[in-house]
Each structure stands twice: as structure tokens, then as C-alpha cells.
From TrEMBL:
Name listed for the protein in its UniProt record: DUF8083 domain-containing protein
InterPro entries per UniProt: DUF8083 (IPR058396)
UniProt lineage: Bacteria, Bacillati, Actinomycetota, Actinomycetes, Micrococcales
Every DUF8083 domain range: 30-289
Organism in which the protein naturally occurs: Sediminivirga luteola
Amino acid sequence: MPGLGCLPRTRLKKARRRVYSGGMSYARSYQTHLRVFEPLAAHPEYDGMDVTDNRARLFAMRDADADRRLLGLPVNPVPAGMRDAPLFLPAGKVGDGIDRVCPMQEDVRSWLALEQLAEDWQDWSAAAMRMVLPERARRRAASAKTAWLQENADARVFTRTAAWEVPPTWLVAVVADQDMVGHEGDAVVVRTPILAASGRAEWAAEVLERRMPDDIITAKMRGLAEWLDDFDLNAVVELDYGGLTERIWPDDTPALVDHWIEAVDSGDDELAQSVRHHYAGRWNEVSALATSS
């Protein structure tokens, strides 16, 4: 499904009426997520809370709030709450007797997303930027982020989000035929102990730093490895395919990424190029939907 900016005016008006009348939220089926769930024992602020699976309820609240903010004018891209809303991963879903939690951090992640969008969209016209990223909202987000960093010694971000893809760096962290594959609604999720995910990311980063030190994917892989190192050793990493499940699952691209890194490591440039081309072709079919009507 295209983003809001791709909706014709008549459909946008209908979407607004649906939201304001309390109807179904706009579906964001193009998003994928990489989450880290830490043991509940590492988060005493959630002591005594019911740890049954709450993701459907929280996601519905998040999406309804986003609709109210994004389908109105002026656009408000930053949520006011849900920073500490706990997304629980009950012990039964992993099978090791440990309940886990991932703070949703909706506002924190929005601040970071605004910064990235401002960098990525430098070629946009000033008018388009003001419509999508109002200057007032950006200033407010920058101020809130600064205050959060000053007030929080533990300024970690527990979730990464992508649109119309699963980044290749994420795919290094999971191995579907070895890890825990499950379903959350219609979405496939792959879960793996963080030690395994961290080890895989570290291996890939070392290979790429040795063979391709100046490539942008090398920096991103190192960034992922360092991010994973910040969490509890009993944490679980979850790759959530979201609404892209029906487009890509079963997904052979994690194996392609591994195969590509092995080819890079061995110095087989021809094989590395061939595998990378295969990978790109697989995901280009999905990313093309972002601009379709």
C-alpha cells in the first residue's frame, strides 16, 4: 500500500472521515521492524504488570493515534505518548521461562526518523518539506530529543523500523531454518537469542571491514553489531516482516546475504556480484510497490 503522500485527494478525504468517525485505522502494511526484547527482570518499572501478549491492542492504539496526527492539517509527525508503553513477549512464545519486554518508544523513534528524513530528502523543494516535515515539528522534536538524552543515562532505542524492505544488515542477524519462526496475526516473525544475532553481525562486520572498508553497507553492519551489544545477554531479537509477509515469505534472502558475505570473504568478486544481483532483484519486486498506484 502506498504511503499517505501517494493517496489521491478523494481517497485522503475518505481516510480522514473514516478516522474521525472512529473507523478502522489506515493500514501500514509496508513497515518491517527489528526489535530487542530484554528480560522483564531488567526493567523493574514494569514490575507487577500483566505480561500477557498485548501487541494487537498496543498496535491498534498506535495506528489510531498516527491517523489522527497524520491525516489532519497541519501534519503532526511526532506522537505525544507511548514512550514507555511495554510490548511484552511472554515466556511461552520463546519457551525458556523468561518474560521479556520491548519499550515501544514511539516518540523517541519519531525524533530519529525526522532527522533521517531531513537528511535523505535534501533534494525536495522547501514547500514539500514544509508539508511533510513542518519546521515547527522538527524544532520541537530536536528539543525533546536533547532533553531526553540529558535526562536518561539509558538512552537506548529498542526498535528499528524500515519501509518496503528488510535491510540486508537485519537479515544477517537471523537464520530462519535455525531460529524460532512464528506468526503474529498475519505477520511472520523470526526470533533469535541476542548472542547469536550479535555474533552473526560481528562476523559480517569484520568481513566487510576487511574487504570493503569504504562501502556504506559496512558502516551499517558495524552500526548494527554495536547496537546489539548494548542489550542484556538474555535478550531476544525479533524480526517482524509485518505486512510484507505475503510478498516475501518464505524468504530466501537471508541465505543470499550470507552467501554474498562468504563470497566477499573469499575474494570471489564474480560470485559476490551475481548473488547481490539476485538479492536486489528479489527485493526490487517489493520496493516497486512503494510507487505503484
